[in-house]
Write a structure and sequence with these properties.
Elements lengths: L1 E6 L4 E8 L3 E9 L1 H5 L6 H23 L8 E7 L3 H18 L3 E5 H7 L12 E6 L4 E8 L2 E7 L5 H11 L7 H10 L22 H12 L3 H6 L1 H26 L4 E5 L6 H13 L3 E3 L3 H4 L4 H12 L20
Parallel strand pairs: 1-4, 4-5, 6-9, 9-10
Antiparallel strand pairs: 1-2, 2-3, 6-7, 7-8
Helix pairs in contact: 2-3, 4-12, 5-7, 5-9, 6-9, 9-10
The structure holds 5'-O-[(R)-(carboxyoxy)(hydroxy)phosphoryl]adenosine and zinc ion.
Length: 336
């Protein structure tokens, strides 16, 4: 079964062809980062316009790379939300028109469900049930996943998402947008013990997060010291910040796995690309005998392969969208 997936929830125009919910035949991602970089964050209106320009060539490229003609497709799946409404509208409306014109079933996908599903797409896919940390620029939450489409939210951030905190700290340090990968690289050159930030665990028994305090602590550290000092200690600040964030993410994820008695744990979303987090989790999970599943780097950030793959079980269960369905900026149900 061949599904064309389309993802335009934020600043990446993506299309992919996935076979039987597992085999990725193509996955094309056109990033808008260069444009938004100048403004220090995503400008929604610009994002929508760029999606409009990119959507047709990106879909054409995904079909060409997969060696698939449109008449070979079994369905079209597109992200319905959550995300930027104007951005979502481009991909979702394109998918509606494509499905209507080609008489194909349309599957409306949740962006977070797509990320959670990406843990099933690697060489060592997660087994059910698994506990997953979803950490991206818009969300940070922990779920138990009992089966396809069966997600239970255990806790989530009360303020900033982890990726958002990375982006804001990067901005404070003059490192530009987006900041996750830059801080990750810089942290490797710094000493995480030189500048220690308090770990925002909140209640250690619960699975909620809060990252706005640590962001403020970094701001205070920067404004209490001279520009020269900050310049000299940028790598140590990055290392100290990253160590605090990683400590909390790893603690909560593994605690949730213990409580839920799951031996399989996964990390998905843009922040799952973080090398410090990946290294630390590899060590901790080996020591505590958990099986760790982190998608390859190209599947951590936003992509359409996870959307097409996650749509497979919807299609087999006959859960189709209608042309009257609309996008949503926030999730109306339990995923967030
Ligand atoms: O999943 P994603 O591509 O888009 C959203 O759904 O938000 O995640 C983007 C986020 C950004 O905040 C970015 O800074 C962060 O993921 N990110 C990272 C790394 N690479 C991307 N954060 C920490 N370390 C990284 N290596
Ligand atoms: Zn995402």
């Amino acid at each position: 079964m061949l599904i064309l997936g389309i993802e335009t929830s934020c600043d990446e125009t993506a299309a992919a062809v996935v076979e039987d919910g597992r085999r990725i035949l193509s996955s094309v991602v056109a990033s808008q980062i260069d444009v938004h970089h100048r403004f220090g964050g995503v400008v929604p209106e610009l994002a929508s316009r760029m999606h409009i320009e990119a959507i047709v060539p990106v879909v054409q490229q995904a079909l060409a790379e997969a060696g698939v003609r449109t008449e070979m497709l079994d369905a079209v799946a597109a992200t319905q939300g959550p995300g930027l409404v104007g951005a979502l509208l481009v991909g979702f409306s394109f998918a509606k028109a494509f499905a209507y014109a080609r008489r194909l079933p349309l599957v409306a996908m949740d962006h977070l469900e797509g990320h959670l599903y990406s843990a099933l797409l690697g060489d060592t896919p997660a087994s059910f049930p698994y506990v997953a940390l979803l950490a991206s620029g818009g969300h940070t939450a922990i779920y138990t996943i009992e089966g396809r489409g069966d997600y239970q939210l255990l806790g989530q951030t009360r303020d900033d998402a982890a990726g958002e905190a990375y982006d804001k700290v990067a901005k404070m340090l003059g490192l530009g947008y987006p900041g996750g990968a830059v801080i990750d690289d810089l942290a490797r050159q710094g000493d995480a013990h030189r500048i220690v930030f308090t770990r925002p665990y909140l209640d250690k028994m619960r699975f909620d997060f809060s990252f706005s305090g640590i962001k403020t602590a970094v701001l205070r550290c920067i404004s209490n010291n001279s520009a020269k000092w900050v310049e000299q200690h940028r790598a140590d600040i990055a290392a100290g910040f990253q160590a605090a964030v990683v400590d909390v993410l790893v603690y909560k994820l593994l605690h949730a796995a213990e409580v839920k008695q799951c031996r399989h744990v996964a990390v998905v979303g843009g922040v799952a690309a973080n090398q410090g987090l990946r290294d630390r989790l590899a060590r901790e999970t080996a020591r505590r005998k958990f099986a760790l599943h982190i998608p390859s780097l190209r599947l951590c950030g936003d992509n359409a392969a996870m959307i097409a793959a996650a749509a497979h079980h919807r299609l087999t269960e006959g859960q189709f969208a209608s042309l009257r369905d609309d996008v949503y900026s926030r999730h109306p149900r339990a995923l967030s």
